[in-house]
Amino acid sequence: MSSRYFTPPRPRLFGHRGFPARFPENTLPSFAAALAAGLPYLELDVWASRDGHVVVHHDETLYRMCGKWRRIRNLNWAEIKSCDTGRGFRDRDGRRPFLGQGIAVPSLEEVFEACPEAFINIEIKQTDPPIEALVVETVRRWRREETVLLASAHDRVIKRLRALCGAIPTGFSRGEIAAFLDWVKRGCRSGYAPPGAALQVPVSHHGTPIVFPESVVAAHAVGIEIHVWTINDPSEMRRLLTMGVDGLMSDDAALLVATARESVSPFGGGGIP
């Protein structure tokens, strides 16, 4: 793994959609807060507008965050940008402190501009029409090939993506994760070639364990990392770090930083500085 994305010391700590425990997810304030809390990595999701902008948003529609029951791919960038993303955030008391504060859905370009030093995990959500070429072109135009990892859960998206992205590292699709687990289950026989650079996975899926000591050892044996999402409990963070996972994604940037600092890291250094 020669990309600069993998050069910072482990464990890799990711702001999952920024810092959504305290700010509207996948927005510039959320990303800025995660970086300010001490996280080197951001995780975000992308779609594309009808007029060809890479849009940073988790859901297919704008309903949950902006109250607009419209698909992103059917809207122009100007229509998306006019929506209030602060509407979708509620604090613990159920209030909407960011409503009407001018927080908008960002583009990937805006994130690159606002977060020049961040390492960014880009999850491609859209399957049709394909947007892989648009995402890769945006990454290259901003010269971020060495500071991003491109990911998608969809097998067809990953297949199309790898034909375009060259040396830019990629994650694993659902089918590739299943194939890795099957290889582990069969005793890690010779002949397995990992298709991506990092398994970015939950601890389990529908009752099937994914992250366990044997899977971590197996991943490291073939040179791939395991990044686990979405971990918001400090005891679970500590358990996974002790197990030897390479990265954690959390909604609570401050909690993740504090827990990693106090944890004993298997890579030396006791977490992060």
Describe the structure.
The protein is α/β, with parallel strands linked by helices. It is built from ten helices and twelve strands. It has a single domain (12-261), classed as Alpha-Beta Barrel (TIM Barrel), CATH 3.20.20.190. The longest helix is centred in the middle third of the chain and has 12 residues, at 174-185. Residues 265-271 have low confidence and may be disordered.
Task: Detail the topology: elements first, then pairings.
Layout: E1 12-16, H1 28-36, E2 41-48, E3 54-56, E4 61-62, H2 63-66, E5 68-71, H3 77-81, H4 108-114, E6 119-124, H5 132-141, E7 148-151, H6 155-165, H7 174-185, E8 198-201, E9 204-205, E10 208-209, H8 213-221, E11 225-228, H9 234-243, E12 247-250, H10 253-262
Parallel strand pairs: 1-2, 1-12, 2-6, 6-7, 8-11, 11-12
Antiparallel strand pairs: 2-3, 4-5, 9-10
Helix pairs in contact: 9-10
Question: What attributes characterize this protein structure?
Answer:
273 residues; 18% strand; alpha/beta; eight-stranded mixed beta sheet; two-stranded antiparallel sheet; TIM Barrel; 10 helices
In short:
This protein is of the alpha/beta class. It contains 10 helices and 12 strands.
Count of DSSP-assigned helices? 10
Strand content: 15-25%
Q: What is the CATH class?
A: Alpha Beta
**How does CATH name the architecture?**
Alpha-Beta Barrel
Rg (CA only):
18 Å
Shape call: globular
Round the mean pLDDT to the nearest integer and report it.
95
* Beginning-to-end CA distance, first to last residue: 23 Å
Write the CATH fold name.
TIM Barrel
Low-confidence parts = 265-271
| Largest pleated sheet | 8 strands, mixed
The run of helices and strands is EHEEEHEHHEHEHHEEEHEHEH
Number of domains: 1
CATH homologous superfamily descriptor? Phosphatidylinositol (PI) phosphodiesterase
